[in-house]
Amino acid sequence: MGKRKALSRVNAKAPVRPRVEHAAGVSTLGSLWALHGPADDPNSLRYLELSIDGAPLKELFARDCVTPFGWGTIPSQMAALDALLMLVPGELPGGRVSLHVCHVCGDAGCGAVAALVEQRSGLVVWRDFGVDDPNFGQVDRRGFEDLGPFYFEANAYRRALEEVRRVVRTGR
Questions:
Q1: Are 57 and 34 in contact (CB under 8 A)?
Q2: Closest by alpha carbon to 101, among 78, 72, 74?
Q3: To 10 degrees, the CA torsion angle through 98, 129, 141, 110?
Q4: Is the overall model pTM greater than 0.85, yes or no?
Q5: Is the pLDDT of residue 5 over 60?
Q6: For 60, what's the count of Cα atoms within 13 Å in the CB-facing half-sphere?
């Protein structure tokens, strides 16, 4: 299991970021409940955030987006999980997979933070991060050039996402 050496926040205002590296080269995927908005605001969105080596994706991306998990329709959440598990092709052009979507509607058309998700020799790889605009078939990689790739041991990766699936089904 890799140790986090350096994590960077990615946003459109600061396109140059230090490379995220892991001592062992293999990261750990996890999940945790998070809020989009102030904790004291009843309209804040509670969602299930993914994490890499304990760091929430929202800290890596620093964009006004959330994962599609823990809110929205069950079928849309299951479809997103199936894409991350590579059971179906990614929903975006080029087979890219949404990691964070619009916090209001969940639609990738508002601009989704996405990556290519691939399996190689017992590892799952997340690479080529960017903001996808499926309306125009374009990927804006500015600010994401030095993020990843992230490597996950395939069995641990599947277990982590099956736990997310269990939480989505049960609500806890």
A1: no
A2: 72
A3: 10
A4: no
A5: no
A6: 30
